[in-house]
Amino acid sequence: MNKNDEAKTTTDTGNPCGSGVMTGYNAIRKEVIGDCTLYQGDCAVILPQLQNFDLILTDPPYGIGAAGGGGSSNEGEVKKYDGEWDNEPPPFWLFLLMADKGENSIFWGGNYFGLPPSSCWLVWDKDNTGNFADCELAWTNFNKAVRLKKYRWNGMLQENMKHKEKRVHPTQKPVPIMEWCLTHAPTAQTVCDPFMGSGTTGVACARKGLTFTGIEREPKYFDIACKRIEKAYKTRPKLFDAVEKIVPKQMDLF
User: Fold this and answer.
1) CB atoms < 10 A from the CB of 64, how many?
2) Count of beta carbons in the 10 Å neighbourhood of residue 246
3) Is the dihedral of CA 120, 124, 125, 128 positive or negative?
4) Burial of 247 (0-12, 13-18, 19+ CB in 10 A)
5) CA angle 172-199-11, nearest 5°?
6) Chain centroid to CA 158: how far?
7) Which pLDDT belongs to residue 128?
8) Long-range contacts for 178-181 (Cβ within 8 Å, ≥24 apart)?
């Protein structure tokens, strides 16, 4: 991408987002938005065909029926979410594949999946009230101590009330939480989210100037992800559009 150009949204054929053309990797659609490549389709089919990444950062279905639940919008009305995507968790072999595809791994909801022991869990304190969970946990393959971040995400109440995020997905994470995750893999330049949902990981990567690949099966959330990531490019700091990132590289001594 030309860093001096506004982020462009295209398919392989150069058509605008939403054209619905067939593409490779058995995906229904492929959209390229700046440095983000998005596939609509089944990650169990698409991910094995992709290259490896510096970081797999994802929030898979927990298998607890969240798709049929409700939530509160910024205006306070109850929202209902459709679909059956959270009826069961992904198969364990898919977690092995994701771990193999990423040098670094962060899997939200790791406490639901029977993953191996880890010295480093990322803990998000949601500053919740009532019967909602106090925290959410992300499994990592990092060799360091547990890390915690407190960020309010309590119905209508959010940490940043002046710039509230519109909640469009039942298990949506705040963008600052995904940006916090990225700080735990500081050398990562390529990031993949095989369960992209409404695209929060992609938004965080666009804002941080990282290369992102996302996969999402549900067409409704794929469309939402496209729009959110495109908006993130239009509103991100101009620094990323004006200056090429300099990645330190160790040189040979001889």
Assistant:
1) 14
2) 6
3) negative
4) exposed
5) 160
6) 19
7) 83
8) 178/57, 178/203, 178/204, 179/204, 179/207, 179/208, 180/122, 180/149, 180/151, 181/57, 181/106, 181/122, 181/138
Its pTM stands at 0.78
Q: Do residues 240 and 36 touch, judged by C-beta distance below 8 A?
A: no
Residue with tokens 């229904």: 28
178, containing H or E segment: helix 175-183
Contacts of 44 (CB under 8 A, 6+ apart): 90, 91, 94
Token representation of residue 86: 């959270």
Residues 151/125, Cβ–Cβ less than 8 Å: yes
| Tokens encoding 245 | 């990132």
**Percent helix, strand and coil across the chain, each rounded to 5?**
25, 25, 50
Question: Which structural domains are found in the chain, ordered by start?
Answer: 33-187+203-242 (3.40.50)
Is 122 exposed, middle or buried, given 0-12, 13-18 or 19+ CB atoms closer than 10 A? buried
pLDDT at 13 > cutoff 60: no
End-to-end CA distance of the chain: 34
DSSP string across 47-67 = GGGSPPEEEEEE----SS-GG
Mean pLDDT of 149-170: 70
